[in-house]
Amino acid sequence: MTYVFVSFAYLPDLDSPERWFERTAVYSGVLECLSKENTVHNVIRINYQGKCEHNGVTTHFVNFGKSKGYLPIRLINFIKSLKPDVLFVQGLHQPLQLISSGLLLNRRIKIIVQHHAEKPFTGIKKYIQITAGRFVNAYLFAAASIGEDWVSRGNIASARKIHEVMEVSSRFYPLKKAPAKLKTGAEGAPIFLWVGRLNANKDPLNVVKAFLKFTETTPGARMYMIYHTEELLNDIKALIKNAPVKNAIVLAGKVPHDDLLYWYNSADFFISGSHYEGSGTALCEAISCGCIPVVTDIFAFRMITDDGKCGILYEPVNEEALLAALQQTKTLDLAEKRNRSLTYFKENLSFEAISSKIQQIAASL
Predict the structure, then answer these.
(1) Is the bond into 190 cis (omega within 30 degrees of 0)?
(2) Are strands 249-253 and 269-271 parallel, antiparallel or unpaired?
(3) Contact criterion met (CB below 8 Å) for 166 and 304
């Protein structure tokens, strides 16, 4: 079977294949696994033109102009020349491009669309999105519940087209804690890790407030916060400054992505306060290392944690609920949770598991 993956979005900040592969490491493994039994093309619009073979996948960097390309006829004709059996479209916010693809491509070509945290359109855009759905054979959501919300809002006509498939995975793996801690310098008992932006959706303020209360009864606990945006950093610093337990929270800031391997393996627990996620890259990476999640009870995180069986779920925005979850960590069987996380990752969240699900879905269409 021949798969053609395409992103209609133009990314001018990327100007080389190396930068593209670095940016998409959490996803490219899916295509590589698919290529072991299929022909796989990836069509990309960045500030570069050329073609390269990388780990079994043929990536085409095309340049058909810098516009949004609502009716990308040249791009669709290029896709047609690759003779796909399956067209795999990244993102649900390009309905006009989807309609163009459905009209111009052979109807035997199956179209699969991957959700990437987009919210359903409203107004006239909603009706364009509904029309685009006539040409879509399957929608992939990290959590089926997210897709069902699109159906209940009327943006997707039928729940039969919804499939639960994780959108990203992790190249990280378990290490022994002692050498990992030598690399990071992390100290504490237990160690919690935050990885994410410091914005309102991630809700670091709720996490910091609850964690500081937790350390009043567990003074040895430490939380390391890794982040690459600083929207609420000053507010966090103010909370830390007035905390009764000093050095309970360490603001590590930005670190190279490859170094996260050692941070996830240094920590006992991964903590998040997200209100909404399309999936959860950092959470997936944490679980791949056996780092136990303490995360919000949202659709995506329920799926990634096997309904909380890999860790603890708590109500978003609820400081007391998070504090109660933190107290629960004292009595958890850490070895059992770690092993459960690693097994669940391999069977459901790994590149191999994701590619296997995509093949099954494609074969069923």
Answers:
(1) yes
(2) unpaired
(3) yes
Q: Which element (helix H / strand E) includes 299?
A: helix 299-304
Note the pLDDT of residue 72. 85
Which residues have CB under 8 Å from 7's CB, separation 6+? 43, 44, 45, 89, 90, 91
Q: Which residues contact 360 (CB under 8 A, 6 or more apart)?
A: none
Nearest one of 259, 329, 263, 251 to 294, comparing CA atoms: 329
Cβ pair 242, 214 in contact under 8 A: no
Average pLDDT on 241-267 reads 94
Q: Within its chain, how far is the Cα of 105 from the centroid?
A: 30
pLDDT in tens, 59-89: 999 887 665 566 788 899 999 999 999 999 9
Residues 6+ apart with CB under 8 A from 171: 25, 26, 29
Q: How do 57-61 and 50-54 pair as beta strands?
A: antiparallel
Q: Are 76 and 109 in contact (CB under 8 A)?
A: no
Any idea which of 15-19, 39-43, 272-276, 284-288 has the lowest mean pLDDT?
A: 15-19
Q: Distance between CA 131 and CA 4 in Å, rounded?
A: 22
Contact status, residue 186 vs residue 249, Cβ threshold 8 Å? no
Amino acid at position 189, single letter:
A
Q: For 76-176, list the strands marked E by DSSP.
A: 86-90, 110-114, 138-141, 162-164
Category of 71 on φ-ψ map: left (φ > 0), alpha (ψ -120 to 50) or beta: beta
Model pLDDT, residue 90: 95
